[in-house]
Design goal:
By secondary structure, this protein is an alpha/beta fold. The chain contains six helices and eight strands, in the order ααβββββαβαααββ. The structure holds S-adenosylmethionine (SAM).
Length: 251
């Protein structure tokens, strides 16, 4: 079981979270073509297919622009919330609101689906966000996550073997990354390098694990958290280092 250490929102964590958000915004503004949910990305299309969103949908951490997976024609009402949304908007059945997952401005049992596309490990308090998701979901409602898989840690003795093997597989890996995580067509490798350079030059906030995350929540930990909140896993799909996973609210 996972223990929630942030029973209250620690002030210094809030400051660090704000800095991770500033870093995120800077990258979004300078390199919009790398937005995780840019139309045409294969991994995003796979996620959209996995979700099969319909009815009333809430996307927590949708980013500052409309993610392509929210354009599903079966969605009756789609609401995206994100603290980086500068100007909220009403685009017919899609609405965008500046808000955080820890305090959802919606009544209980309103949504059929809640989804987190690479956003769950950006929030400040994971347990609070999940409790809020449970509150706004209808009975038997569905929550969907796109998260990372925990990187494999190996005993030292295997490292040299792995290094040799990884040299051989690096070329294949590069091809897979190019194929699946490719940004919009026409985006050059130079821009990707410029983005990587920019990220390396950014400060890692105090207590954070990198420029954008206070903590990573990997697949195993997510399963523990969801069990704790009485969700039942109903589907999952592994795709390279990502996992798409679907849970149903028990009642
Ligand atoms: C990697 S982006 C993913 C954006 C979008 N879902 C996509 O697939 O392109 C993570 C997002 O989580 C948002 N976020 C961070 N903290 C949050 C919080 N407490 N509540 C809701 N969203 C949050 C960030 O602002 C950021 O836009």
């Amino acid at each position: 079981m996972v223990e929630n250490k942030n029973t209250h929102l620690d002030e210094y964590l809030i400051e660090s979270w704000k800095k991770t958000q500033d870093n995120g915004l800077m990258v979004y503004k300078e390199f919009p073509e790398f937005n995780c949910s840019t139309t045409g990305r294969k991994d995003v299309n796979m996620f959209a297919k996995f979700c099969s969103l319909q009815g009333k949908v809430l996307d927590i951490g949708c980013g500052p622009s409309i993610p392509s997976y929210l354009k599903d024609k079966n969605i009756e009402v789609g609401i995206g919330i994100d603290p980086l949304i500068e100007v909220g908007g009403d685009l017919g059945k899609l609405n965008f609101i500046n808000a955080v997952g820890e305090f959802l401005p919606f009544r209980r049992e309103f949504f059929d689906f809640v989804c987190f596309a690479t956003s769950f490990d950006h929030v400040l308090d994971h347990v609070l966000v999940l409790k809020e998701s449970v509150r706004v979901l209808k009975s038997k409602g569905i929550v969907i996550f796109w998260v990372g898989e925990k990187p494999v840690t190996r005993p030292n003795i295997l490292n040299r073997y792995y290094e040799n093997l990884s040299r051989a597989t690096r070329t294949i890996e590069r091809r897979i990354v190019k194929k699946y995580a490719r940004p919009r067509q026409g985006t050059s490798d130079l821009r990707a390098e410029a983005q990587a350079f920019k990220i390396r030059s950014m400060q890692i906030p105090k207590g954070a694990i990198d420029q954008f995350h206070l903590k990573h929540v990997y697949y195993n930990e997510l399963n523990d958290l969801c069990e704790l909140l009485e969700f039942t896993k109903i589907d999952e799909k592994f795709s390279h280092s990502s996992v798409f996973v679907k849970y149903k609210k028990n009642n």
